[in-house]
Every structure is written in structure tokens, then in C-alpha cells.
Write a structure and sequence with these properties.
The protein is mostly helical. It has one domain. 49% of the residues lie in helices and 0% in strands. The chain has six helices and no strands. The termini are far apart.
């Protein structure tokens, strides 16, 4: 679409920028979100809210590992999944089907175990 509106060079530049940004953010999630951050669930990943803001929720990587098929990745207080409102809107319009929105019942938060 950008090629039609702004010409082929702008469209090509936009495609290159998009591809590079996607690859860099994917690498950031895989590198940073397995090293730094909070671990509310017992798995090898961590949650970083600042990374979640720029990766549409994937920065809540510990939650993703706890519930890999969940469409919503914000499970705890203070966690925000920026992609969830768009997914919920598509669901209301019947343009998307959501299989799950949270961890399975047997998945317990580490913080809950520490409080017991």
C-alpha cells in the first residue's frame, strides 16, 4: 500500500525497517526476557513490562511460558498486555477465536508458594 501512495522507494524502505525492527525485537525477547525481570511462574523466562509495551505483550515472557496458548499475557496486577484490547475487539466482532486467556489451573505462581 505504501508503494502505491508514496512510491516504490518509500514502500521498500518501510519494508526493510519493519523487517529489521521485527528481528531485533524478537531477539530482544529471546535474550533479555530469559535473563532479567520477574519470575512469577517457575520456568526459565522472565516478565519485563517495558519490553511488553514495545513487543505487543511478548515481554511478559514468563507468563507466555506458563500459558503458551493464551491470547492474553497479562495475568497479575500491574501487568499490561498491549495486544489484548485488539484481540478482544476482534473476538467481539467474531473475527477471532480465543482458546484460552490464562494459565492452566495446575500452574501455580511462585509468589503464591512463597506466601504459604
Amino acid at each position: 500500500m505504501l508503494c502505491v501512495v508514496f512510491g516504490p522507494w518509500v514502500g521498500l524502505l518501510a519494508a526493510v525497517v519493519h523487517t529489521v525492527a521485527y528481528l531485533q525485537l524478537n531477539a530482544a525477547v529471546n535474550a533479555i526476557a530469559h535473563t532479567f525481570g520477574r519470575q512469577p511462574y517457575d520456568n526459565g523466562a522472565t516478565n519485563l513490562q517495558w519490553l511488553a509495551w514495545i513487543t505487543s505483550g511478548e515481554g511478559l515472557h514468563n507468563n507466555h511460558h506458563a500459558a503458551p496458548t493464551s491470547a492474553k499475557l497479562a495475568f497479575g496486577p500491574g501487568e499490561v498486555d498491549p495486544a489484548w484490547p485488539a484481540i478482544a475487539g476482534l473476538r467481539r466482532l467474531r473475527l477471532a477465536t480465543v482458546r484460552s486467556t490464562g494459565p492452566r489451573p495446575h500452574t501455580e505462581r511462585v509468589e503464591a508458594d512463597a506466601a504459604a
